[in-house]
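User: Could you check the structure of this?
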Amino acid sequence: MYETSYHRPSSLADAASLLANASDGRLIAGGQTLIPTMKQRLAAPSDLVDVAGIAEMKSIAVEGDTVSIGAACTHSDVATSDAVRGAIPGLAELAGMIGDPAVRHRGTLGGSLANNDPAADYPAVVLALGATIHTDRRQIAAADFFDGMFSTSLEDGEIVTRVVFPIPEKSAYAKFRNPASGYAMAGVFVARMKDGAVRVGVTGASGNGVFRSAEIEKALLDSWSPAAIEPLTISAEDMLSDIHGSAAYRANLVKVMAKRAVAAIA
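Assistant: Sure, the predicted structure tokens are below.
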């Protein structure tokens, strides 16, 4: 790796100041993507600003009809939280499926969302539940946050501080893992909201990144059962196609994972 300066601020204000004063500063928490990128010399930030120890970014709380999760919470924190498991068990289950134990104990919610890997798990639940991403500057609705593969609406130096999830009536997540990496080749988060709406977030399958499936949502709104999804034909037009699976294969995986998620709820 190239030479870099490492900083471990104790507050959000200090982190923002360090970023603003660095010639090419990068945030780091779990480092699951940035550190390997630096080791391959594909990135050479002048400064690393570590937000993993900032207390205000590590809390988890049920607040009214929402669950608020700090951006520096690890996947393991989310998966094992009694608050999350009690309010949104589908979210806790999703977090427990990410990577392996080493990844789950280092990787963070905020880092995953800011990186927006097309095969990451969290985007599916964030988009499906219509979560709100809080930063040190503003609040961003999930529908406005994701902007295609590895791209978000975050501005330079903007720090994700927490994510607020509406609590659904019921939810579940199912994914087909890439056998080598554990990333989702297709991951589907299904939720019935308290107002009766059905929302479905899909990750891993599309070259455009995470998306909502209107056709699956409509089918489940008409009849909440795996059988309602069976007649659907999911379009392969925008699906990824690579050595791991064709576009048609991934389109079929979306359908299969959606059926499994609904069956898991039942």
